[in-house]
Amino acid sequence: MERSRCRDCFEAGIVKLIRRHAPPERHDELIERIVEHVRELPDGTPAPLGSALALERFSELTGIADPFIEDRRHGNELVRAELPEMEKRIAKAADPLAAAARIAMAGNVLDIAAPHAGTFQEAVERLGKGTLAFDHIEELRERVAGARSLLYLADNAGEIMVDRFFVEQLGVPDTTLVVRGRPAWNDALLPDAEAAGLGEIARLIDNGDGVPGTILERVRPEVRQRFAEADVVISKGQGNYETLNHERRPGLFFVFVAKCDMVSDALGVPLGSGILLHAPEHPNTGASLGL
Questions:
Q1: What are phi and psi of 275, to 5 degrees?
Q2: Pairwise CA distance, residues 119 & 122, whole Å
Q3: Domain ends where: 62, 81, 100?
Q4: What are the pLDDT digits (tens) for 169-208?
Q5: pLDDT at 2
Q6: Which residues constitute the domain of residue 30?
Q7: In this structure, are 80 and 28 located in the same domain?
Q8: What is the pairing mode between strands 252-257 and 274-278?
Q9: Is residue 289 very low, low, confident or very high in pLDDT (cuts 50, 70, 90)?
Q10: pLDDT of 206-217, one tens digit each?
Q11: CA neighbours closer than 13 Å in the CB half-sphere of residue 220
């Protein structure tokens, strides 16, 4: 039943993509061909992988290589306008690291695949004042205190503008920030990370893949190596959680907002909850997050 629930939501997203970006006269044809393509995927296929395969098929059939350019631009501009206020919030906070983590977490609602997640401003207020469903900030603080290397797996455009504050507060000398290698919904690409100024404080690389998540078998060898060797890994966003939730290595932290009921149910938290979760303390629900 849960797999069907995930597939229904996933297929609705594909239909929305087609209706938004393809010529109206091709809607029925494209919906039939792409949804049928997705339905052939094996049960348990990670939803982010299914998304990438659907987008590849969409591009093949329409010739539209990147339907999300304007979404990324809009997200970056929206958050850029809020940066002075976010900087003030962090400077005035009793705990700047926790404040930066929550602001970066709030940016995770800027996900066009989760249209009901709310606005960035609403998320800043809600997550800034409320109790997180998982709040392992002390474990994170302890880990970064002696860390020499950090791998930061970024997620969405817009969100990446406030990731800079979080990276600065983490303060790890050797920091590598990873973005997607190809368009994947509104996930950040290298130009988005550069626009956020992250190249000034971290080494920027793309992962070579177009999945809106991190499937270690598909990404560049350098990313796999750094994932294995970094003292601290920040896995940002729900897509990265969905593809890495089975990992339990020390120093791996998931930072995101639970934006779908499959994920919130698996974690046993309300929809919309803020998550800062140390992987070794991950609740062992046994729930599958695949299609």
A1: -125, 125
A2: 5
A3: 62
A4: 999 999 999 999 999 999 999 999 999 999 999 999 999 9
A5: 45
A6: 2-62
A7: no
A8: antiparallel
A9: confident
A10: 999 999 999 999
A11: 13
C-alpha span between 42 and 46 (Å, rounded)? 10
Q: For residue range 11-54, what is the model confidence (pLDDT) as tens digits? A: 888 999 999 999 999 999 999 999 988 888 888 888 899 999 99
Distance of CA 201 to the CA centre of its chain: 20
Amino acid letter for position 138: E
Amino acid at 169: Q
**Number of neighbours of residue 281 by Cβ within 10 angstroms:** 10
pLDDT for position 99: 98
Q: Alpha-carbon distance 16 to 255, whole Å?
A: 27
Tokens (6 digits) for 225: 């190596």
Total count of domains within the chain: 2
The amino acid at 265? D
Question: Is residue 288 one of the residues assigned to a domain?
Answer: no
Q: How far is CA 110 from the centre of its chain?
A: 9
**Distance separating alpha carbons of residues 110 and 117, to the nearest angstrom:** 8
Report the alpha-carbon angle 147-229-256, nearest 5: 70
Q: Which two tokens stand for residue 204?
A: 């920027």
